[in-house]
Design a protein that fits this description.
713 residues; Rossmann fold; 6-stranded mixed sheet; 23 helices; elongated; binds adenosine-5'-triphosphate
Amino acid sequence: MSANGTEVTLTDSTEMEQRRLESSTMKTDLETGSCSAAIHCHDVCRSYGKLKVLNSLNLTVPQGQIYGLLGPSGCGKTTLLKCIVGTLKISHGHITVLGKPPAFPGHEVPGRMVGYMPQDIALYNEFTISNTLWFYGRIHGLSSKDTEARINFLIDFLDLPQKNSLVRNLSGGQRRRVSLGAALLQNPQLLILDEPTVGVDPVLRSKIWQHLVDIVRGGQVSVIITTHYIEEARQANTVGLMRNGRLLAEGPPDAVMKQHNAATLESAFLQLCEDFDQMGTKQSPQGRLLDSSPSPDSMRDESREPILRNSTPENIPKYKADWKVRARHIIPKWRNIAALMIKTMVRMRRMPGSLCFQFLLPVIQICLMCLCIGGDPKGIDVAVVNNETSPSAYSRTLLSFLDNTSVHQVNLSHSKAFAGIHNGEYWGVIEFGENFTSYLTKRMWQPRVSKDVVEGGSVHVWLDLTNRQVALMLQKKLHEAFEAFVETKLGSLSYMVAVPIKFEKPIYGSENTDFTTFVTPGAVLSITFYLAVGLTALSFVLERKEGLLDRCWVAGVSSLETMLAHLFSQLFVISVQIILLLIFILLVFKIPNEGSLALVISLIVLQGVTGISFGLVISSAIDDEQSANQAALGIFYPNLIISGVIWPVECIPYPLRYLSLVLPQTYASEALRCIMYRGWGLSRMMVWRGFAVTLGWNTFFLMLATVILKLRT
Ligand SMILES: Nc1ncnc2c1ncn2[C@@H]1O[C@H](COP(=O)(O)OP(=O)(O)OP(=O)(O)O)[C@@H](O)[C@H]1O
């Protein structure tokens, strides 16, 4: 069938001839990059799970033309555009864009050659219009002068508000125009615009179309545009009418209308849909929804090939884009990393509250920990039953040595004291017999005494052992009080009643070491690690959800560059956090540091990097904030508990202890304790092992995140 000189129906034989041509000329064209079509899609299939969205689709966007891709909502237009720019992989078929498959090594698609405006707004809300355009200008390597000139042109052309206006304060239509501006910025050879005119007033819509007509006039620029306003696509050189993942027709708008004797493109499209539905009902009652066929080829249905097709011999594409390789530039570009880092800094500056919170949160956490964990309990109520009445009785002297900040003595009768402890009012009962002083004197001075003397000369203590920390403190305070009492009464002879075990000066650490001292190094590492995980895990998830990651990728930013830029920016935040943390633990809470401060800082920074890398893994693998949060929170307690941060690893039962040892913070916490409390350096195994394990995890997480991100973009 021929509607005019350029339109022919594709037959089986021409299809076969085309395939033959494709395979024979593939090599040459990949090498030269020459192709008369700006975009050529051949037999393209793409599914989301069982849902077949693109179904053996063939499409050709001629060089230097506007191609209007039309179709009802959900027919697969956006999916097709994503496959064309390379953010989605196709499951079957071939695509060439400007002569080579998308993401072909060395090809600037994705990159400077393509301007992509996704359907989602995909703009950073904290940016101004100017920040947005500068950001893409940097990525495309435009000079400052060119960027400035293009920004001024686009602001004027797209009728944008002042360039210092924040994106978050713009209306939906204004944002869409900024997004279009970002796609037009570098004057790309190919423009891929997904519904650029939605929410744009008719005057501006016609201005945008006029601009597209102007830019393709020279024959160098090609445009593929999707729109819901079918009639506006009459200004396109070619339209493609899509339905259920297939192209129903492709050709100049007038020819499409003429062929269907329709007065409007819309009615031509309606008629095509009806024809297609009739054919579909006869041939396939199930339609296209369920992909039950294993072979895409077997699903080819030639009767559903485009009814109109622009397929002169010159624009039959000669390629085969069977490239599994999605590598682009392997060596990261500093230009892209710098652009992404500047982006993060600008966003941080625009959110001072959030930045302060990020800086202060670790300090608040460590302060709370040092203040609330590890100290002695205070003001513990203890019932005292003293059956001695004399003011000079030893019992009174002994009680006077009991630390009264920790122990609050309540003098009671025996019955009231026991009633109180049973009612939970007191943590213990301390009782002295009526002859305590005389019996104790006998015990001190006489070598042999009866059991009754020993009994009567003892302090009797009943404890509520339901709170181990309180009970241990009471035992310790009673021992200290007794030692002080003996010292007072016996002076230089006090050794006579001392326990025959003498604790000499400690080799490492101080005699007054407390639980806070043990827990602080591990807590510092955990806090740094988890804050980094939290901040990172969400950032990528949100960027991906808003289409920002895809947009950067299409602009030419690789996964590795995204990772490195995020890592470097977060290092800045971590550095400030660590400086504040160290000031507080060393200067305010006086936690000792016998070792090298440089080693302490390095280990904490490296643990922060471990947190960032792990956050990157979470955000690369998970798509929504809730699941990312759950993953980050889910590992928090198990990791904290079995890393030996709060309780020694030596208490962990065996199979779990092996797991504990391979976790990122177990050896690192031990190493930090060795540096800070033993003053050890890198020559000690316990120190270098902490560094080695941390570095190992960093490398593993970063590689894993890069691979996941690469596979998923
Ligand atoms: N990530 C996804 N996972 C699963 N299904 C998806 C996904 N993205 C799109 N789809 C489905 O694929 C089909 C085609 O979607 P697509 O966004 O390509 O349509 P469209 O033609 O661009 O629609 P519209 O004009 O409304 O934007 C729809 O049925 C949609 O629900």
